[in-house]
Amino acid sequence: MPLDSHPVRYAVLLMRTYMQDDCFVIERDPPDAVGVRSILPSLGPFRKGPFLIDGVFIDSHWNSDLKWKVLLPMLEDLLPILRESRVRLADVGSNNGYYLFRLVDWMLGLDPTWAEGDRLCTAFDPVADFEAQFRFLHGLLPHYPLRFERAGWQSLSEHDAFDIVLCMGVLYHHTDPAEMLRTLRSSLRKGGRLILETMVVPSREDRVPYAIVPPGRYAGAKGIWFVPDVHALLVLMRRTGWQKVELASVRSAIDEQKRFGDFPSFREMLDENDITRTIEGLPAPQRAFVIAQK
Description:
With 294 residues, the protein is an alpha/beta fold. It is built from eight helices and 15 strands. The protein has a seven-stranded mixed sheet with strand order 7-6-5-8-9-15-12, with helices on both faces. Strands 1-2-3-4 form a four-stranded mixed sheet. The longest helix is centred in the N-terminal third of the chain and has 14 residues, at 64-77. It is globular and about 60 Å long. The N and C termini lie far apart (46 Å).
């Protein structure tokens, strides 16, 4: 039987993927480093990564492998859902789809036939450059059951069929976090799971829930509207209808974002004399993962 009669198996035979230090490596046989270098200028800077493709290093603003290592134990707890033959998964604010590529790659390591089922992972992001990067990466790994929808979280109101929704680094960018949480919830099947990651501020000693609304930039960034402490975040999620809300982790993430071209490192956005404060004098953010169920 000719190889091209099994396109999924054929694609796998032509490449291999693995991690090298913090780099997601994609090696094709034969490699095409010239082709990779020729397309990179049209894709814009990579915020998520880094990658090593056919020997070409693609640096990124975020060291995304650090967050992946925090996310992975939560996904391991959801393996029964991920192994379902028709599982549907969404990543909201997916950027170039980095975490979906890692998720599929991990699942294929557990079950080499996983991509051959009727499974589908959808990346949602409204940014054209991120879509271009996704399509470049997916062109290298066409057997991965992925698709990209150039849209924000608002488009999720048209969906109600996801088993798992990932939403990482998005909530604080929007003016109505309660409405966003309701929309995420409406996109899930009954019993579906949300893995949410967002910035939080340190809690008060009296544990009274509170949040800050920065008057301008926050840690050097524009467009930050709402940063709760973990107690306020959990209250908000319960009040927007989520069940079984659990705080999975809180971390500093101080070294996940490095200087990258014109993009500063996270450390540069902290008070050099007190890293618990931002350069604006506000409490420095931490990053929290929360798991919840519809």
